[in-house]
Amino acid sequence: MQKRRRRREKREYFYDYTLLFVVLFLVFFGLIMLYSTSSYEATLDFGNGAYYLRKQAMATVLGLVMMLFISVVDYHVWRRFALPAYLVSLVLVVLVKTPLGYEANGARRWIKIAGISLQPAEVVKITLILLLASVICIMGKQVRTLKGIAIVMGAAMIPAAMILLITKNMSSAIIIAGIAAVMLFVADPHYKRYILIALAVVGVAALAVLVIVNAAKGGDTSTGGFRGTRILAWLNPEAYSDDKGFQTLQALYAIGSGGLWGKGLGQSMQKLGFLPEAQNDMVFSIICEELGLFGAFCVILLFVMLLWRMMVIANNAPDLFGALLVVGVMGHFAIQVVLNIAVVTNSIPNTGITLPFISYGGTSILFLMSEVGLVLNVSKSIRLRDVG
Amino acid sequence: MRGYKTFHRKKVLILFLGVCFCMLLLAGRLVYLMVFQSAYYTQKALTLHERERSIKAARGEIWDRNGTVLAANKTVCTVSVIHSQIKDPEAVIELLCRELSLDEETVRKRVEKVSSIERIKSNVEKETGDRIRKADLGGVKVDEDYKRYYPYETLASKVLGFTGADNQGIIGLEVKYDDALRGQDGTIYTITDARGVEIDAQGESRKEPVKGHTLQLTLDRNIQTYATMLATQAMLAKEAEGVSILCMNPQNGEIYACVNVPEFDLNAPYDLTDEFISLRGEKLTDNLQDERNRMWRNNCINDTYEPGSTFKVITAAAGLEEGVVTPADTFHCPGFCVVEDRRIRCHKVTGHGSENFVQATMNSCNPVFVAVGLRLGPEKYYDYFKKFGLLQKTGVDLPGEAGTIMHKKEDIGLVELATMSFGQSFQITPMQLLTTFSSIINGGNRITPHFGKTIIDENGKKEELQYPVQKGIVSQETSQTMREILEKVVSEGGGRNGQVEGYEIGGKTATSQTLPRGTGRYISSFIGFAPASDPQIITLVVIQAPKGVYYGGTIAAPVCRKLYENILPYLNIEKGRENTERESS
């Protein structure tokens, strides 16, 4: 493909239009689905079916501008701002606790500055990617040592812990830790330690589930607490249909009733007040209901294509810094997509993770687009003669 | 390329493939949910989205034997409000107050209550319902419904019975044939959002209700009406507490009339009637439900009494069948007889003197029947009692049939046997007496008395109801002899008042005391059948506690005569061949 392009365009530098188109498609598809999903509740709550669409569209336009801007600024420029940006984002997280912070949907996760609301956790994701890419480049081979690993993971664990403790947002903490782990995995040539860590994580998770289930069997529901019931509701959502299993069960109704070809765009029943947060975390289940298995596969394929393009760009990046930036972004997207679909299909316990580009959320779309801008800029700096 | 090495590329590829693997697993999960589990979740979701409203099925009609409608349905409306669809609550409240004549407070409370559907009033006249519907206010629902309606009001009230608020039978045939009459309720399924608001685009699906089956009775409205009139007259004339008339075809058990005056209004069954209240007098209690149950009682079936002399027919049949007596046997009645230490009096204190068995029956002579009973002995007598079916219920198709109250076999001494011989010291229902009497005169077939004749389904398909018949209760000869003796009772004996000009009638009178004895209250009764040689109709008249003259032959037999004078021609029953008949006997 690159060869063909070289013959035809005679350009010195590469620009990944495929990635751009996939992203644009996802963004517009996301807006359509958001409108379909949210118009009922928007009409009821605000008397305007396009309420959520309008807000999301504004954030998307802003995001597109940001993306284009970042994609034309050489990414090496950002290296200088890596540490200050990281520190500022940490401060933003703390600001949630100040009067600037505000609560929505029963969780205090946002801040409002000069009329613009912002979710600091979303900011942290991009600044962390930037910081880790810089730090790994500076450390060079030291990253392979235990100290190197400690530094990288430490840099991620500080904001992850803050987000978990201050905003009670476990899913963002997991994503942040996951981004760091992905970048570390790529930067470090070792395999064994990562396989061991992965096995250990899976083992601990399985053990935790077992303990909670046994506690519940013994009639002791208190030890499980908030997250304990989530685990139990995951294993048997119908038994917890009034409580923690409610949203999951409603999502399953939506997905299951979609069938092969879906009910048709706009025809979802579950979005009519049955499925809570339909336009947020659960938007994928409405896609399944309206567009069926076919539509769901198309969306999954789009994301796979997106990740594939990022892999190509990372592997052809002119330097390690560029490659790591792309890997960070790739890790971020991959983790969110996989976890979101896994939650929606009740493959893992319910935790609030949004689907990139499609779920409702202004900060999220703005920073996702910015990250795509970074990736595009890295792609732009690939010299075609280097592509092999 | 600075710092970026092959291992980095390999790791990124592994990362990508790892993600692809996860995606594949999730795709598999989706296939499982959306293909294999799809039907399950689709059904679950549909149940969640669907709201059901039931459509009442019309209850089957009840017809008399000629197709006259005795119980029908009329359309009434149920008015409800759906809170979430009300646009102008004030207008709704105003309209409902005005049309349903309810006070504003009640209506306001229901209209403003946040619920999915709130019933305002049921059993609203159709015209009112139509007016409310025409006003076309959002959130007001008018559902049509059926209410049971009895065009003849009190006619056969204790037989037909009535239905409750949910159209289910409460007493009488409405209970017995509830399954056939009820039909199957239909359902309207509408798709709603989570707040219960119907989604118009989705439309609604209906499961149509199935109308209940029509029940055709053996009752004849004309006979029932005429019998009711006669019973009412007799009750008024004799200031009686109640009069029952049972009219049946003795060959097959089809009941033509079953009257128990005073009747009650089936269209207002819960209101105690004036007649009932005045009859109860001081005995009326405050327990309304007890009094209602009392008013609803069907005396022919739910109550037992001492049959008295009419039961001598059974003793006679047993005696003839067993051969311990023949019509020509002669007896002597001194006006009493002594059994063990008891002196049992005949109703004629001076005694009947010398008489044969036929004459003894015509005279209804107690000592003669005591003698026949003693000839049979307790064991045999009890066996006949059982053989005639008196120990079991008749199996009539009405609920609450009372059983026979009878001595235990081992407790029957000679005194008990003697009193039983002329119909005392045990109790049976009027229906039981009539059924047993029928089997003795119809050639020995114990038939099952019944009201239900045919069940007609919604397509007009008829199902004739079948009832068991037990043959050989008595021999043809005994039956023949009994018919002849009983014809004489009416033509020349104690049942003379039961005679109908030009017809040959058989019958037997009775005057029994009410229990406990010694209150001076009597029950007068008469059983008459026609034509005597080949009975097509049999009638039992029972007058409870008449004032003044209380002899069955004097007051009950004329009621039967008046009835027969009209209904025998109506039923095309052949006039008598008195001469030929007389010769053969």
Written description of the protein model:
Chain A is mainly alpha-helical and 388 residues long. Chain A has 13 helices and three strands. In chain A, helix 2 runs antiparallel to helix 11. Chain A is globular. Chain B is α+β, with helices and mostly antiparallel strands and 585 residues long. Chain B folds into two domains: 53-217, Alpha-Beta Complex (Penicillin-binding protein 2a (Domain 2)), CATH 3.90.1310.10; 257-584, DD-peptidase/beta-lactamase superfamily (Beta-lactamase, 3-Layer(aba) Sandwich). Helices cover 39% and strands 20% of the residues of chain B. Chain B has helices spanning 6-36, 38-49, 89-100, 104-112, 126-135, 157-160, 173-176, 178-182, 221-238, 274-280, 288-296, 299-302, 312-322, 357-363, 366-387, 414-421, 430-441, 476-491, 552-570, 578-584, and strands spanning 50-55, 62-63, 69-81, 118-125, 140-149, 186-191, 204-207, 214-217, 242-248, 255-261, 330-333, 336-339, 342-345, 353-356, 452-456, 462-464, 506-513, 522-530, 537-544. Chain B is elongated, with a radius of gyration of 35 Å. Residues 579-585 of chain B have low confidence and may be disordered. Classes of the chains: A mainly alpha (388), B alpha+beta (585). At the A-B interface, helix 7, helix 10, helix 11 and helix 12 of A face helix 1 and helix 2 of B.
